[in-house]
Amino acid sequence: MLVNGINVTINGVEGVSEREVIGYIDYLQQENDEEISSVEISAAEDGNIVLDYTTQPVKFERIRRITGYLVGTIDRWNNAKRSEEHDRVKHGLN
Q1: pTM for the whole structure
Q2: Burial call 7-24: b when 16+ CB within 10 Å, e when fewer
Q3: How far apart are CA 40 and CA 13, in angstroms?
Q4: What are the residues facing 9 on neighbouring strands?
Q5: Domains of the chain by residue range
Q6: Which of 2, 53, 61, 67 can pair with 72 through a Cys bridge, CB separation 3.0 to 4.6 Å?
Q7: Count of other CB atoms within 10 angstroms of residue 84
Q8: Residue 91 has pLDDT above 80, yes or no
């Protein structure tokens, strides 16, 4: 089932309402800084609920050292600095 854009699977637990599922999702989101992509709700041997979840991959920005500057992108550079970067010798891993 899909709840709030999150793929939810329920295994071995009968009668779980959508309201309960939303409560479990809210709990997991409060405990994690990352965005949750899927949740599996299953029964433990002692009668409790087990929540297994996966998160979305963390997006990151590539940072490079170019001509003495740590940069992610060069879109804010002026034409002279862009030309300098373009003329540099780029070494490969061959």
Answers
A1: 0.57
A2: ebebeeeeeeeeeebeeb
A3: 11
A4: 40
A5: 2-55, 60-94
A6: 61
A7: 13
A8: no
DSSP collapsed to 3 states, the chain: CEECCEEEEEECCCCCCHHHHHHHHHHHHHHCCCCEEEEEEEECCCCCEEEEEEECCCCCCCCEEECCEEECCCCCCCHHHHHHHHHCCCCCCC
Taken as a whole, the chain contains a residue count of 94
pLDDT tens sequence across 36-86 = 889 999 988 888 889 899 888 877 777 777 667 777 777 888 898 888 888
In the numeric block, which tokens belong to residue 82? 């862009």
